[in-house]
């Protein structure tokens, strides 16, 4: 049946698996995507949205590297918002509401258009291991499929257990069976495994809701998109979301079911995502709050199914129903399906290298929730990195690793393998110490040249990036070199309520004032003339404004990043005997031995390793 050996086999077709399979095949490697259900490729298992705080930056980075999540999101979007625009540009984060059915369909169409990608529907029950190397997979029907590398992206399916009140049953998602066999084999091979939990809210019938009693949440008046390419366009029309609130009455009704809640009666023993708690957890932990926001999100352009964001729960379905009917606008609500919690197996990611290859088994890669992360975007970025590195390993090429000052993806991977996680890991801007460098607007400038070197994207993309870099730098220099007429400038400054100037000076200086924005500076005659003779896209002008207003912050972070690189360049040999260095603290010796950091910089980020431990390590390494 399978008479050839594949270069790469990807197990699972969620966000991580889809990106891994796409990039592997697009890089020229024969790839097989194995999934239990070909109808649910790229399924949005939870909320029908992509991006958000820090997550939007990740989607832009995936797109810049030649991944497909941005394109799929744009093509299936029903609303676009740029979050955090009241803050600095390091915090701006794009987000789309998406049509759930179109999203999955678009992923399927994108993947089927890749010539070197094959598909097979079946459950993978085990890995084929020879020595300490994976050489293929074995399905539940006993079929053995050989490959040079395997990427596991099992999502919530590994021994998945669904909870609704006092009922529990096996499943990887509602209506889909769990995956069994792989965890046991990996544990037998020496891997450490654990359990995590996530949850999802009820889906309801939008025809039964009274939107007139809720607050409309429209998209941005001027929309943008995720993908830097010309393969997608920004939205011309959008669908509104809505917002309503819980109340003390709703909370009391929910509390009536706490004795039957698997969260509180001991049935669920694993940890869920701290930053996306269930409604019962919010009521229990924040007892002083008399209401919580609920976002009412349409599931698509035409469907009446609605996602109740903020009401994730595993309470009995009768309790969910009664409580939700007491929410303003939900008085006559009809359920499509109740909310539920799901427990699943994961493998602590400290067992991985920076390439996402496992330390124990050669050519075996983990990506997504199997590594303890939560979120479509986090999973997709790991799938992309695992797919790239699987191909490069087969070709005996250098691994592709992003540093913490190069991408949020670099922060994500480094956090996982250096610090590990005991609860579902979610990306935030606060996790990135160089977030002024890692903005959503410059992901293409940072990463597309790397993608061209990898052979993932074309030279055409590089030409677009080069023009963006060249033209934005040229205009910034123009602003540095060109003086304004102080009388003309004062007309603007008075209108903006900011201090007037007494003499001619450079445009750069006055543009850097927080009260003066791009639209303001466009009214000054020299700038107006410059823009009339130079046809510049909005993304170029955005770069100009960011660089003018945040030049000092950007320079400072670049300087800090350079200092980081000095420690990144101090490599630590594999299997280094940290325990022989008696002057290290006991905790440092234990942590360094367990994690086996590749560089002194990585060692410095391990919890429990102090600056004095790093000094000792540098001395022992002759530095």
Tell me what you see in this structure.
By secondary structure, the protein is an alpha+beta fold. The chain is 35% helix and 17% strand. It is built from 21 helices and 20 strands. The strands form four sheets. Strands 1, 2, 6, 7, 8, 9 and 20 form a seven-stranded mixed sheet that branches. A six-stranded antiparallel sheet has the order 14-15-16-17-13-18, with no helix packed on it. A four-stranded antiparallel sheet has the order 11-10-19-12, with no helix packed on it. A hairpin with a 2-residue loop joins strand 10 (161-164) and strand 11. The longest helix has 23 residues, at 459-481. The radius of gyration is 26 Å and the shape is globular.
Defining key terms:
GIDA_C_N, FAD/NAD(P)-binding domain, seven-stranded mixed β-sheet, single chain, globular, flavin adenine dinucleotide binding, 17% strand, tRNA uridine 5-carboxymethylaminomethyl modification enzyme MnmG, six-stranded antiparallel β-sheet, alpha+beta, 4 domains, Elongation Factor Tu (Ef-tu), domain 3
